[in-house]
């Protein structure tokens, strides 16, 4: 399988839930107290049959109106129309902004099926701002392109998903398995490499203790079975592979 990170850049985010671009000239100490420095990094995984997109970023557009996620794909030689599956860990705005186009009336990948936990969708509609921007994903239920998941299951015998909760009540994680290889995407339960190596408990998680426990469990299993980990919010390490 081929893995392609699609970074939208580095940002700081504080209690206001606003994502402010951050570059090498910026000083983190000058950002509001408690600001976190994160990468926003969807991924594409190309299998023998599919072009799979993992989460959809912030949904920003370039100066010419092109969805940044589309531009990132084209820069990597991938036609956005060729994306066949979109796996959504959850619907927080930094993971779901690219679900729809700028006018919010059509989905951004009309050739793809969007997979999201049904209870996460219902919860997000009810919860709303500042964590969820309903206008970004409200089109899903009307699109005919969404397939709702629940609990744990599989898709086409190549993708496994697990309802984890932990970061938010109905967050899910994914495993893509083909030709003896396992790619793992833990979304915001496993967002950065450093968190996998420590017993880190975050106050911003719905259940920080469960997040920490799941990370330790996945890290140990991944080391044993040779998984490749994808880290959505890691500034330095997007992909980490345990060699079998």
Topology:
Blueprint: E1 2-5, E2 10-13, E3 19-22, E4 36-39, E5 43-46, E6 51-54, H1 68-75, E7 85-87, H2 93-96, E8 113-117, H3 118-127, H4 134-137, H5 140-143, E9 146-149, E10 153-155, E11 159-163, E12 172-178, E13 181-185, H6 193-196, H7 208-225, E14 228-230, E15 239-241
Parallel strand pairs: 6-7, 7-8, 8-9, 13-14
Antiparallel strand pairs: 1-5, 2-3, 2-4, 5-6, 10-11, 11-12, 12-13, 14-15
The fraction of residues in strands falls at 25-35%
Q: Please trace the helix and strand order, writing H or E for each element.
A: EEEEEEHEHEHHHEEEEEHHEE
- Roughly how many Å apart are the termini? 16 Å
Number of domains: 1
Cross-sheet strand order for the largest sheet: 1-5-6-7-8-9
User: For this entry, what is the oligomeric state of its chains?
Assistant: single chain
Poorly predicted sequence stretches spanning 5 or more consecutive residues: none
Largest sheet: 6 strands, mixed
Describe the model:
There is one protein chain. The protein is α/β, with parallel strands linked by helices and 244 residues long. The protein has a single domain (2-187), classed as Metallo-beta-lactamase, Chain A (4-Layer Sandwich), CATH 3.60.15.10. Helices cover 21% and strands 25% of the residues. The protein is built from 7 helices and 15 strands. It has helices spanning 68-75, 93-96, 118-127, 134-137, 140-143, 193-196, 208-225, and strands at residues 2-5, 10-13, 19-22, 36-39, 43-46, 51-54, 85-87, 113-117, 146-149, 153-155, 159-163, 172-178, 181-185, 228-230, 239-241. The strands form 3 sheets. A 6-stranded mixed β-sheet has the order 1-5-6-7-8-9. It has a 6-stranded mixed β-sheet with strand order 10-11-12-13-14-15, with no helix packed on it. Strand 7 (85-87), helix 2 (93-96) and strand 8 (113-117) form a beta-alpha-beta unit. The longest helix has 18 residues, at 208-225. The two termini are 16 Å apart. The model has no long low-confidence stretch (mean pLDDT 93).
């Amino acid at each position: 399988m081929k893995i392609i990170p699609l970074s939208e850049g580095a940002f700081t985010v504080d209690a206001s839930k606003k994502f402010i671009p951050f570059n090498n000239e910026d000083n983190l100490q000058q950002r509001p107290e408690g600001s976190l420095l994160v990468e926003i990094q969807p991924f594409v995984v190309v299998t023998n049959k599919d072009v799979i997109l993992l989460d959809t970023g912030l949904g920003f557009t370039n100066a010419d109106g092109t969805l940044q996620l589309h531009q990132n794909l084209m820069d990597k030689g991938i036609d956005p129309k060729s994306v066949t599956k979109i796996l959504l860990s959850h619907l927080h705005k930094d993971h779901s902004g690219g679900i729809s186009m700028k006018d919010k009336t059509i989905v951004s990948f009309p050739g793809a099926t969007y997979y999201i936990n049904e209870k996460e969708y219902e919860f997000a509609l009810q919860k709303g701002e500042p964590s969820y921007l309903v206008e970004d994903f409200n089109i899903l239920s009307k699109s005919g392109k969404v397939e709702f998941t629940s609990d744990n299951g599989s898709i086409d015998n190549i993708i496994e998903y697990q309802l984890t909760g932990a970061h938010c009540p109905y967050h899910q994680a994914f495993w893509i398995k083909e030709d003896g290889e396992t790619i793992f995407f833990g979304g915001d339960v496993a967002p950065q490499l450093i968190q996998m190596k420590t017993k880190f408990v975050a106050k911003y998680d719905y259940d920080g203790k469960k997040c920490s426990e799941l990370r330790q469990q996945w890290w140990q299993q991944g080391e044993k079975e040779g998984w490749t980990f994808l880290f959505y919010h890691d500034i330095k390490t997007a992909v980490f592979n345990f060699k079998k």
